[in-house]
Amino acid sequence: MSWTARSIPDQSGRTAVVTGANSGVGQVTARELARRGARVVLACRSEQRGAAALDRLRSQVPEARAELRLLDLADLSSVREFAHALPFDRLDLLVNNAGLAAVPYARTADGFEMQFGVNHLGHFALTGLLLERLLAAGGARVVTVAGMAHVLSNIDMSDLAGERRYRPLIAYASSKTANLLFVRELSHRVLSKGLDLTVAAAHPGYARTELQTKGARLAGQPGRERMLRLAGDVAGSSPDQGATPVLYAATAPYVQNDAFFGPRLMGVRGGPGRAWRAPWARNDLAAGQLWKVSERLTGVVYPGL
């Protein structure tokens, strides 16, 4: 029988942070963790949308212990403020889920290309700022939501700002490669120090969420937006199905460092299984280089690593 959200072990006594928990896969992830007893922090950029998501969660899981905290991954000062204000001495689970896909060119508050800044640098900074609390928990996990789109592009270390040539989909794919390189390097560093922390990645396949259509909407391309929505209706899975590999990486027993999970059926649908990654997403040299660049750009240095 395939692993489903009903397979999640009891999460009582555990505290989880889920970024981008206001919709889609993030919302389902937060809901199912709360359903199994975890105390869940919904880390969202929009207070209005986050509050609406929290209300939905509480209506679906009346016994939930959940709260909303504002986090804008496109602004490193917001990331620092969120981490500083989080009122827990230990953290059992961090799900780096929030992201943008194929949006028009823009820059973050700190001047980074928006997709690289939000999808990778924001989460790199957040994880580093919460690392001591994750290590204090014992047996904690960090799960980063990557994507099969990484197969479309390696990361260009010489043009992280996308200034020479910006193609929205390729920039998104590069940011997903960055996610996997981050997971690889953090895993190696954790293992080399013998630390009790599991670092893994997951992707939802082609889930019917606003992530798939937001870029076209922001670009003012209603025809493309309709086409993407139709593709999701025909070939995509529900957010509940898309969240399953993420929940598996976050809660299933025996998950190993640097594991990557996704839907079993051609990486698009089905129960969770091991996901394939492109050779450039397994490049240890590139992972180390990206780590050093990320430290320099964010100013966040991981304590003890």
UniProtKB/TrEMBL annotation:
Record bears the keyword Iron-sulfur: no
Keyword Amino-acid biosynthesis among UniProt keywords: no
Keywords on record: Oxidoreductase
A GO MF label: oxidoreductase activity
Gene3D superfamilies with a match to the protein in the record: NAD(P)-binding Rossmann-like Domain
SUPFAM superfamilies assigned: NAD(P)-binding Rossmann-fold domains
Cited NCBIfam families: PRK06197.1 (NF004846)
Protein name (record): Short-chain dehydrogenase
Organism of this sequence: Streptomyces nanshensis
